[in-house]
Design brief:
The complex is a heterodimer of chains A (137) and B (178). With 137 residues, chain A is mainly alpha-helical. Helix content of chain A is 42%, strand content 4%. With 178 residues, chain B is an alpha+beta fold. Chain B has a single domain, classed as Gcn5-related N-acetyltransferase (GNAT) (Aminopeptidase, 3-Layer(aba) Sandwich). Chain B is globular. Classes of the chains: A mainly alpha (137), B alpha+beta (178). Chains A and B meet through helix 4 and helix 5 of A and strand 1, strand 3, strand 4, helix 2 and strand 7 of B.
């Protein structure tokens, strides 16, 4: 009788190769007490048990609002009696296409144009602390 | 006060607005809505409080403009391609004097600069300029606006802020808050 030889598997590792899972980002926020209370109340109303679920739902809603506003759609709430209210949210207004500004002509003196050309040709100035604060607002 | 900044609407209450400057009051009351909706030469954004959402506490007006390339003095052009120079004009900014000193001017300018950055990313613009009253030039300078030399007779000081500086301030914020 011919002896049987067990064929060695090509992959000698005890476990199949795994693709690494994408790293999850951590999110930490400092909330004012009133915001914390608001978040807890919303979580209870929506029957959400974890902050992760809360953030995930909020993100989905925010993403939808941004995409609607980007397409120029307005976000409207309508009451049972047909009364309509349009959502105006400054951050959303920034992505709306109707932010496009009209065009005007400016009067320049020759000296102002020299000064302007020099400035736009030069390395940009470093932002001031007040400007950084303004962009953080 | 919970202030929102949004575009001027037709039925906003502007008649009681008083920033202490007649041309700025008059612009808001007589021209801002027409200029925005009918002849499209400027968009006005207003600050309003949640408790009285149609009462204007402050405003600013923006428009785009450009300098034709043949008006830019060649000897000062270093590294600029031969195109017209697109820019944003901060045409007006005013706060009702009853609400002065509460950071509304800062909030309005902050919003104007954010819109500038957004417009720059959507259609391209190189800088924002404004015509400042001489006694307000120092306030704009705190935000990095640089006075342009050569004003003649208007009593106004043209001031300039590079979009690259604003962008940098914005990313500086992102870097430091991460």
């Amino acid at each position: 009788m011919r002896p049987t030889v067990k064929e060695k598997p090509k992959n000698t590792s005890a476990f199949p190769a795994r693709t690494p899972l994408p790293r999850k980002s951590k999110f930490q926020a400092d909330l004012a007490p009133s915001e914390d209370r608001m978040m807890r109340a919303l979580k209870a109303e929506l029957q959400l048990t974890s902050n992760t679920d809360f953030l995930s739902d909020a993100l989905a809603l925010f993403r939808w609002a941004v995409s609607e506003r980007k397409r120029g759609h307005r976000i409207v709430s309508e009451s049972l009696t047909g009364e309509r209210k349009i959502l105006v949210f400054p951050r959303l207004e920034r992505v709306a296409p109707d932010v496009a500004l009209p065009r005007v002509d400016i009067r320049w003196t020759a000296k102002e144009l020299e000064s302007l050309t020099e400035l736009v040709s030069a390395k940009p100035a470093e932002p001031t602390e007040t400007l950084v604060r303004a962009m953080r607002q | 006060m919970a202030v929102t900044i949004r575009r001027l609407e037709e039925f906003d209450e502007v008649e009681s607005f008083d920033c202490g400057d007649d041309p700025l009051n008059s612009y808001l009351k007589r021209h801002a809505w027409t200029n925005q909706q009918k002849i499209s030469i400027g968009v006005t954004y207003v600050a309003a409080d949640e408790s009285a959402p149609h009462t204007v506490l402050g405003y600013f007006t923006l428009a785009t403009s450009s300098v034709p390339r043949d008006r830019l003095p060649r000897k000062f052009m270093r590294g600029l391609p031969p195109y017209d120079l697109p820019l944003i004009l901060l045409a007006r900014l005013a706060v009702d004097k009853r609400f002065a000193g509460r950071g509304l001017g800062h909030a309005l300018l902050s919003e104007a600069l954010k819109i500038t950055l957004h417009v720059a990313s959507e259609v391209g613009c190189r800088c924002i300029v404004t015509d400042a009253y001489p006694d307000k030039a120092g306030w704009y300078a705190r935000y990095g606006f640089i006075p342009l030399e050569g004003a003649v007779g208007t009593g106004l000081q043209k001031m300039f802020l590079d979009v690259r500086t604003i962008r940098r301030a914005s990313s500086f914020e992102a870097f430091h808050s991460s």
